[in-house]
Amino acid sequence: MDVTRGVYSEPEETLLTTRALNYLSAGPADVVDLIGHICSLPGAPRIVAEHMAHAMFAGRPQFARAADGRWMLADTATKPYPESAGRSRTPAGASDALHALSYVVVDTETTGGSHWLSDKITEIAAVVVRNGEIVEVFETLVNPQRPIPPVVSRLTNITWDMVKDAPTFDRVVPDLMRVLEGNVFVAHNANFDWRFITSEISRTTGRQLRGRRLCTVKMARKVLPQLSRRSLDHVARFYGVEIRNRHRAGGDALATAKCLVRMLSDLADRGCGTWGDLQTVLRAPAGRRRKRRPSGMPMPVTRDTTA
User: Fold this and answer.
1) For the chain, what is the mean pLDDT?
2) In this structure, is residue 29 part of a structural domain?
3) Backbone angles phi and psi of 135, in degrees to 5
4) Tell me, what DSSP letter sits at residue 135?
5) Domain check: are 157 and 261 in the same one?
6) What is the domain count for the chain?
7) Which CATH number belongs to the domain containing residue 53 in this structure?
8) Is 115 a catalytic residue?
9) CA of residue 197 relative to chain centroid, distance
10) CA-to-CA distance for 127 and 186, rounded, in angstroms?
């Protein structure tokens, strides 16, 4: 499986890998020039440069070798090369057919809305969609190792008694990564779930999660402009999707997955068939708005951000 078509994990960035990413953003480079730039070793022997590059980029899927032996960025779906020498480069992966990609639809319940402070995940679900079908459902409660505020418990129906004997996130990570890797990350208000999950993965494993993401709220704005709201309740109602166990990770993730399948089908009917087509649709300017939209930033979980 080509994990770079979806999400993948890698060791956290160092100063040298950050410099390599910046240098290769302009296009492929010879290994001697690359190592000379990022390590301040101009003219290093080729064999030395090769060994250094392999050691530095091992386990980092965003680095790859071109057919001519030069190093390049593999994850160019979200890091397109700029125009160079008067020619526009097409991002790698833009021609991937949407129906050929696999997706993992994620939902998390948390103790609050501040991943950067002390809030933690209390439940997580990941639903794998392949060829328009749900093929796997991963769901588990998580011990957040901190109290759950009563107002959050009233919204999610998740109490401390339910999670006190549940696995902590570090024990959940191996199974979660198996489900995530190689699949496009999808969620309703994706930034919220992505930030919590990547923060917890970094904290417990020292690795970073990278790769393709889709937000079904943003998709619904383009696919269903006639809806007054693009909350999960409104989108599911439009498609006739029943949401069981609302505000629980499994119920919301399953409903979102079913809505994703329907929206991808609608996009295909409109001639949007590739990853590049979809990015063009999502980047298209919005029509004239009749009223101001709420902020797109994640809201505290004490407020229902999807209803």
Assistant:
1) 86
2) yes
3) -110, -15
4) E
5) yes
6) 2
7) 1.10.10
8) no
9) 9
10) 9
Is 93 within the bounds of a domain? no
User: What type of residue is 83?
Assistant: E
Q: What does each C-alpha distance from 160 to 122, 123, 143, 165, 169 come to in angstroms?
A: 9, 12, 8, 9, 15
Provide the 3-class DSSP secondary structure of residue 35: helix
Based on the domain organization, do 60 and 103 belong to the same domain? no
Residues 103 and 69 both lie in one domain: no
- Give the number of other Cβ atoms within 10 Å of residue 234's Cβ: 15
The string of pLDDT tens digits covering residues 217-248 is 999 999 999 998 999 999 999 999 999 988 89
CA 158/CA 123 separation, integer angstroms: 8
Beta bridge partners of 63: 73
Closest CA to 263 of 227, 294, 223, 212: 223
CA distance 244 to 242: 6
**How far is residue 116's CA from residue 192's CA, in Å, rounded to a whole number?**
11
* Measured distance CA(233)–CA(307) in Å, rounded: 6
Do 246 and 137 share a domain, yes or no? yes
Residue 92 φ/ψ, nearest 5 degrees? -60, 140
3-state secondary structure of 7: strand
Which stretch of DSSP H or E encloses residue 11?
strand 7-11
Tell me which of 37, 51, 234, 247 is the catalytic residue: 247
Q: Give pTM, 2 decimals.
A: 0.74
Among the candidates 73, 106, 124, a domain finishes at 73
304 located within any domain: no
Q: Is the pLDDT of residue 116 over 90?
A: no
In a domain, 261, yes or no: yes
Domain that holds residue 226: 98-283
CA distances from 220 to 188, 235, 256, 268 (A): 10, 7, 11, 14
Residue 67, pLDDT above cutoff 50: yes
Helix (H, G, I), strand (E, B) or coil at 138: strand
